[in-house]
Structure formats: structure tokens, C-alpha cells
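can u do me a favor
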């Protein structure tokens, strides 16, 4: 998927943890093989060309496309797997794959805490230690190496943090209405939610919407908080974000 993944597992029997990590890594490679739009032989590329049906693909394809359809419905089309006349579900695959890997490791090891970071998008489950919550730093798009905020998972059994923006990868977010790079006043949108599958989608959709519409929409989503940073170095956030900082 063109990025680095890291795992942080607290507790669990060492042999079980090693086996679970090997399985999770294999699952991430498998997801790349199935969903990569850069591989001509991937199932998603063959599906896009009409060489396969969804029923002939791995079960994960139908699962991801179903989740993407729900994301498109909730975002009123601002999140989409189809633009410029082609199928491309990469906007949801990474978050889904990271969340799935975290849950599989937690279930297989009985660890008290599991964190998975996929290119800066993070899913945490449980706790890293007694009376110690997971804490996730949010990069400042205007100050390389600096942090715009630190999100705490205190009191939450599961938490995800996903950021969409142009600071590191350039103008890669597409406006599904035009099929071209989104024209927006934002540099980054960070979404905090229980599940990374949705946090990743909502960050992408809100970034394409722009600061005003994106913030209004994010405020309407239950259990979701967000931090938006504009090109003018203006910080905007949802009303409940303060309760997640620390």
C-alpha cells in the first residue's frame, strides 16, 4: 500500500504474539495484492476492467465495496470509490486493513493493548498499561516535525485517529464530482472515532468538502471528533475534541 506499518502489542504470550504478528503482516500483504490499483493482476484491477465479477473475487472485495457504499451514502457522495470513470477503493482500504489487523492481533493474543499505525493512521485497542491510555500525536502540516495536538484514548476501549491532507503526499485527494484534485482551503483534517475504517473515510471526505462544510458535516456524525487546519494556519475543531486531547 506504499507505506510503513508498525505494531505495538502490550501483554500476551510471546509465542502467540509473534504468530499473530506474522499473520497480520501476511494479511496486509494480501490486502495489497487484492486491492492495489498499481498491480495489473490485482483482483480490483481485473474487476475494474470487467474481467472478474465481485462474486468471483475474494470475500474481502465485497466487504470493502459494501463499506465504501455506506461511506458514500453518509458523506452524500463526497467519499467515493468511483471517479474519472474507474473503480478505485484505495481511500478506504488502508483504514480497513489496519483496523482488521489490530483486531486480529488482539483476538489471537489476548493482549491488554494493541496499536497499529499505517502511514500515520492509527487504531488502538485496550490500554498499554495500568492507568495509562494510548496517546497519538497529530502532525502539524505547517511545521515539519512538530505536533498540532495529542489525542488521548483515556476511557475508550477502542480509538482511531486518521489524517487526510496535502502536506506529505501533495494534492492526492480527489473531488469525486470532478475527478480532479480537490480544491480546498484545508491543509489537513484529522478525525478521531472508534473505528479506523470510518475515520479514514471521513477525513478524506471532509478534506474534499473544505473547512466550513467539512466541519459542519463532521459535527453531525455521532462519536466523531475532528481537527481541521487551513492553509492560513487557522485551527478549527468539533465541539467535543477538547475531551480527547491530552
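np, heres the sequence
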Amino acid at each position: 500500500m506504499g507505506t510503513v506499518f508498525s505494531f505495538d502489542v502490550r501483554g500476551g504470550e510471546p509465542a502467540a504474539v509473534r504468530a499473530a504478528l506474522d499473520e497480520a503482516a501476511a494479511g496486509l500483504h494480501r490486502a495489497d495484492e487484492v486491492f492495489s490499483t498499481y498491480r495489473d493482476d490485482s483482483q480490483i484491477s481485473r474487476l475494474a476492467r470487467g474481467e472478474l465479477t465481485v462474486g468471483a473475487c475474494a470475500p474481502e472485495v465485497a466487504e470493502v465495496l459494501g463499506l465504501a457504499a455506506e461511506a458514500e451514502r453518509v458523506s452524500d457522495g463526497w467519499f467515493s470509490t468511483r471517479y474519472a470513470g474507474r473503480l478505485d477503493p484505495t481511500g478506504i482500504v488502508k483504514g480497513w486493513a489496519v483496523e482488521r489487523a489490530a483486531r486480529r492481533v488482539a483476538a489471537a493474543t489476548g493482549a491488554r493493548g494493541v496499536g497499529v499505525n499505517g502511514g500515520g493512521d492509527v487504531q488502538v485497542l485496550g490500554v498499554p498499561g495500568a492507568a495509562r491510555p494510548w496517546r497519538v500525536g497529530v502532525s502539524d502540516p505547517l511545521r515539519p516535525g512538530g505536533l498540532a495536538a495529542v489525542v488521548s484514548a483515556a476511557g475508550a476501549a477502542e480509538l482511531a485517529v486518521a489524517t487526510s491532507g496535502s502536506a506529505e503526499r501533495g494534492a492526492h485527494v480527489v473531488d469525486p464530482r470532478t475527478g480532479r484534485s480537490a480544491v480546498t482551503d484545508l491543509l489537513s483534517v484529522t478525525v478521531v472515532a472508534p473505528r479506523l475504517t470510518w475515520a479514514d473515510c471521513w477525513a478524506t471526505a471532509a478534506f474534499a468538502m473544505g473547512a466550513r462544510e467539512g466541519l459542519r458535516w463532521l459535527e453531525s456524525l455521532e462519536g466523531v471528533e475532528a481537527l481541521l487546519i487551513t492553509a492560513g494556519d487557522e485551527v478549527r475543531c468539533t465541539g467535543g475534541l477538547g475531551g480527547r486531547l491530552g
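The first helix runs from residue 14 to 35. hope that helps!!
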